[in-house]
Amino acid sequence: MAITALLTVATGCGKDEKPSSSSSSSSTSSSTSAASSSSAASSSASSAAPSGTAPLADYSNLLVTAADIGADTTLGPPEQNPGGVAGVAVTFSNTSKTHTITDLLVVFTDAASAAQGAKDRPASLGKYVTGAPQPFAVGTNGIIVVGPSPDNTKSVTYVVFSEGKVVVDLEFDSGPNDAAPQDFVLDVAKKQDDAVKTRTTS
């Protein structure tokens, strides 16, 4: 999954460059695939936070909950400030682990930096999903990419947007030729957007 690359980009940024966020899937949706590898984030990314990101802290209150995703959705333990970058990451999955959503939030010092981070993000997504970015009507600079993974082992739906000072990366992984339903993706993205919008302090 793309957490490692995102955080590597973040730590290489100056104050005007930003990272993004990522997610893991639901049980009630008809997506179908083996889970993504979000736990490698902190070990693979630099521990020096870029100047454009916020102070390290507990940002888990900004995440959506398993109840927001679906009835039989399980929640992995949140990873605080993965890779030494301000934010939080978590993976949701159904009980059989065939559908996952990886949710990564990266917190910046200001909304302009976060918006630029979301705008720059599509250039790095080709490593994780094969498809052309399309506009996505959530947050600022929202995009969505739907397609197979480069190795054709799973279907991937990747969503990126910013909300205020936060960049949200949501990655929905499922079985080959069984992409997450678009209405489900939109619902999860809106819930995450609302959570950030209502819980972020200025």
From TrEMBL:
Comp. bias intervals (Low complexity): 20-51
Please list where the region (Disordered) is annotated. 1-51
Q: What is this protein called?
A: Uncharacterized protein
Source organism (scientific name): Mycobacterium florentinum
